[in-house]
Design goal:
Order of helices and strands: EHEHEHEHEHHEHHHE
Shape: globular
Number of helices: 9
Radius of gyration: 18 Å
Strand order of the largest sheet: 3-2-1-4-5-6-7
Helix content: 40-55%
Low-confidence stretches: none
Distance between the termini: 30 Å
Number of strands: 7
Structural class: alpha/beta
Length: about 260
């Protein structure tokens, strides 16, 4: 299926590995030019080199730095001739007990996982509306649907972003101009972050395989997801066929969430 977005420009944040990289690869496969961002120059340039080799027909530009910083946001936005697609993505804040978090911890979480995506959206959505096409994807977390007690910082910040999107996505001056805003809620995907989490969890008994198998047993699909399939979901929502889907939260977790809604 031709998704009809060849030649467009996308910004993909945190795209050097994991789910962000999966989204970048899927968009590149559809002929979308990319501006990709990450905090580590070496891994970002390695990803850019891979993308250029696999998809020589597109242009791939890189911006290194923490996208929560205003100057990096400005550089990122300026790197694309226009922004047709924006994929917001950032690593979640650390786990812990809310009794141990102070105001600084909360502000850092809100800045990375709520305020930064909002700032980038604010910078691009009106231009998208003027051109009659725009797609915004926010990679949040399955914890928005089923909060995890030790991830309170993430639960709070990402839920705030979710509520914001629910209102803004339905503005007629955006939805009525073919500009959509949606959230992708990943469950357990086979990424470096998941592997690190499993390793930490296995420290109690030293059996990584047992911890991994126990985690997989909680997933009806009996496996972890892959960044490639996550990227495919992202690319579809960014496509010409995604214009009638906005303000939605797509949970992609292999059936792990047990609720009806």
């Amino acid at each position: 299926m031709d998704l009809g977005i060849s030649g467009r420009w996308a910004i993909v944040c945190a795209a050097s590995q994991g789910l962000g990289k999966g989204c970048a690869e899927a968009l590149a496969h559809e002929g979308v030019n990319l501006v990709i961002n990450a905090r580590t120059a070496e891994t970002l340039e390695q990803t850019a080199t891979e993308l250029r080799a696999r998809f020589p027909a597109i242009e791939v530009r890189t911006v290194v730095g923490d996208v929560a910083q205003t100057d990096i946001q400005e550089t990122l936005l300026a790197a694309a001739p226009q922004v047709d697609i924006l994929v917001n993505n950032a690593g979640g804040p650390p786990p812990g007990d809310f009794r141990d978090w102070d105001r600084t911890d909360w502000l850092k979480a809100l800045d990375a996982n709520m305020l930064t995506p909002i700032a980038l959206m604010k910078a691009v959505v009106d231009g998208m509306a003027e051109r009659g096409f725009g797609r915004v994807i926010n990679i949040t977390s399955g914890a928005v649907k089923a909060p995890i007690d030790i991830l309170g910082l993430s639960n709070g910040a990402r839920s705030g972003l979710t509520g914001f999107i629910a209102g803004v996505a339905r503005q007629h001056r955006l939805a009525g101009k073919n500009v959509t805003l949606n959230n992708l809620l990943p469950g357990a995907f086979d990424t470096a972050r998941l592997q690190k989490t499993l390793q930490v969890a296995s420290q109690a008994n030293g059996d990584l395989n047992a911890v991994t198998e126990a985690r997989i047993k909680t997933i009806p699909a009996a496996r972890f997801g892959t960044p490639e399939e996550f990227g495919a979901y992202c690319a579809f929502l960014c496509s010409n066929y995604g214009g009638y889907i906005t303000g939605q939260n797509l949970l992609i977790d292999g059936g792990a969430y047990p609720g009806t809604f």
